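note to self: the first set is below, dont mix up w the second
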Amino acid sequence: MRWIIRLVLAVVVLAGLFVGGLFLLPADKVAALVQDQVRSATGRELTLSGRLSPSLWPEIGVATGPVTLSNADWSDAGPMLAAEGLSVGLDLKALIGGQIVIREIVAQSPRIVLERAADGRANWLFETGAPAPETAGAGGEGKPARGFTLDMARVVDGSFVYLDRAAGTRTELAGVDATLAMPSADGPARIEVKAALNGQPLSATAQVAQLAEFTGGAVSDLSLDAALGGARLVFDGRSGLVPLSAEGAVDADLSDLRAIFAALGQPAPTVPGRQIGVKGQMRYTPQNTLHLREGVLRQDGNLLSGSADLALSGKPRLTGQFTAGALDLTALTGGGSGTGAGAGGGGGGGWSTAPIDLSGLGALDAEVTLAAQSVDLGGTRLGPTRIAATLTDRRLVLDLREVQAHGGRITGNVVLNGRGGTSVGGDLTVAGVAMQTLLRELADYDRLIGQGDLRLQFLGSGGSMAAIMNSLSGSGSLRLGKGELRGLDIAGMIRTLDLGYVGEGAKTIFDGITASFTIDQGVLRNDDMVLAAPLLTATGAGRVGIGARTLDYRVVSRALSDSGGAGGIRVPLLISGSWANPRYRLDLEAIARERLELDEQKKAIEEKARAAAKKAEEDAKARAARELGVEAGEGARIEDAARRKLEEEAKKGLRRLLGGN
């Protein structure tokens, strides 16, 4: 900004020349001398149009008509400076004493264009022209320039335009009303500005310890209090203009993001909460990087402590490490309780078809870590949480290093991809969690109660939650310990073959469940579910429509007749319908088929038993005949032959006893 000081000095010279030549030189001669001085100081052409008007009271000074200062020869943006008029007032007593005391300088409706070319050239860097002739004093000798003081410099209804041809951006500061007070040329200065930055109201007050050094490229102490819309920035530290740098304490209220991003010409991101701020030690470097140390980020009642680095050249890139105590992010989730599952086990309205907008992921690249003691998401309260977020070209990867939730631990990663569409994927390991609350949040299903482990890999794409759920693919496995299945009493249904054992209050208590599954096009398929319960076992297979929120599942239960697991009744149960209103029915066809098979098996067994009994009887009779040594004649029975044989043997025994032959 040294050119501004040079221009001010040129105007002062103009006033001095007018005083000296008021009665000696015509106005056009004085204007020519001023133009020579400006050309010498800047290498640019100053054009003074209209009449130069001197004044002697109440203070000595001069006013001009329209004024323009030419731009760099490579620019096509018009004059670098164009004003409707300039006026300057000097302290006559000080001037007579050899001092320049400027009471007031006023620029009426100036338009200043600052421009950086695509190759890096800047129009505010002047090529100094040929030296102008020195003005002679009373003795005809040149005198060195003296210091000056400036009581007040004012810009009325001005505008500043900054054109960055390399970045293709245009920033405009309109309606500028500014004042500058500088008691001495090498001392402090106070600047006050009110304007509109790209349509947003801006006000600022700055105190510079050494304005001359500051505008000349040196670093000076600086305090700044600026407001943009409803946002505010307070800075106290050191800063320099060439190159631009700053370091010091900063306290910023960034709640009015709409105004901030509108001023930057960017759409405002949707950020939850009403109060957003940052405080800490800030450093901005000539390499266009911003660094925060000992930082505290505020979002409503949340406080995050840590450090961050933001590179602004090209696409912004943020790196940071933050820690927090208890975080309340209910504003992010709308404060609801998950997806609103009712007692029936799931909402009946289906997945949301509202468009998912991930365009905000393209605003910057980032690599940030967060460690929090707890996180309240509205429907879910997480315990100690450690997460690393990496955002690269609209692809966000959340590395869940440790998340304590639902009484267990979740690790893995989740990916949100906004490149050329919307997709979401993940690879999660869940250990020892309460399945009811987990499944309620993941799938709007709350009938399964118990602690268990879950392994899940998934991928879905689409512009809404409904589209993503209908496109899901993946695989996983589930293992539960003791628990219960709400809404269904399998044991009671087996005992009575009565479908009335369903609904509110009905439940199946189990010792464990295991299952594996695959997911394709939003449909989960499982064929190896095993449920173990007291005096009951069950196997299951079927489909679960995650996208359609439907069930088509078959459970085959067996009531055990003893504690050893033997015997029992086998009953197949069909489960269909929606998650919200499932329908249960016995597989009567299968039951009839199995009963027919049992009857046929029973009949075959009975026939086989009769044949075996008959054969055994025949074998016994034949064996008896052989042992008795008799043969049955035709038409005679073996019993008759045996009786005759016994009679003969009895007669022989009697004769031996009587001594006969």
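second set (the one i keep forgetting abt)
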Amino acid sequence: MQRVNDRLMNWASLIEEDTLRQAEKASRLPFIHPHIALMPDAHLGKGATVGSVIPTLGALIPAAVGVDIGCGMAAVRTRYHRDDLRSDLGPLRLAIERAVPLSAGVYNTRLTDSARERVDQLAGAAGFDPGRYAKNWQLQLGTLGSGNHFIEVCHDENGAVWLFLHSGSRGVGNKIASHHIRVAQEIMTQRRITLPDRDLAYLTEGTEEFAAYLHELRWAQSFALANRDEMMDRVVACFAAFVGGPVEELERVQCHHNYTEQETHFGKQVWLSRKGAINAAAGVPGLIPGSMGDASYVVTGRGNEQALNSSPHGAGRSYSRSKARKTFTRQQLREAMKGIEFRDTDAFLDEIPQAYKPIDVVMRDAADLVEIRHTLRQLVNVKGD
């Protein structure tokens, strides 16, 4: 661990100066308590650093969660062994791609019974009209998105088959976050508050704007959780059809990595915003995916208080998407994905493993933050363009 200053701690051995500078700006805010923790996968982000844990007293920074509110992971351990699967996994990939809408702006055309039940629960709990952010928000439930979101079939070190996915609150969460980031920025302008970065605009506890953001943030976090559950149920059904038998879930793990909760740290109750970080309190299960084609991990938190009971959420980018597309080739992607069933397309060049930090380095840096329970290797990869 590197103490950058009294209000910034860093667990990343691979980190760029721009990332440290961005986090240092956030650490200057007067309501940080006691310090910001940078995770081993930290990299430059919009507004706040991805892979940062930001504890605040009496204020919330909407950009400290970001626009994909509630983004996170879900995993199911099945009773099946990799040897139970036939060698041609193409039909399984195609079935999943038919069952779950992929890519940005691609949603369901109708609600399944399970999605309708989840939508009704979300609508009843909202206390506001989500339709003012996205008229079709109901049809977004059970959809993946694009970028680094994925669905995978994996096996662990014992050969057990896992179903694994990564997604968040989709378009409706993005619109909610973007609205409140703008509101915070307008307030800063009205009050003539100077910030080290405009995207660090904040909302003060006790105000209507703070209460509105917190309420809608929590709703979007619930939407993200329900979205992953809906997709996972569809993936389980696809897998059951592929193996020709029921899928007994031996374990289901869910974790957000873009969210805010109230927690107690160093003697004070704070608003803890994890942007690209998971809860790693002692004994808490978590999921840390590697990049496309790399290993992923099922972990248990060690409860490292200096790290604010947090850990990395993945590998962390080392190349921007535009630079990755210019640097890497389709052949390199094929080599990286050798032995894995995936859709072979140029659209995934920016997700090639070489565009990310080596996950083994990230996990080595995280040794004091989490304990590794299982190491997962991919059999099938599904992504949106």
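remember for set 2: The first helix runs from residue 17 to 27.
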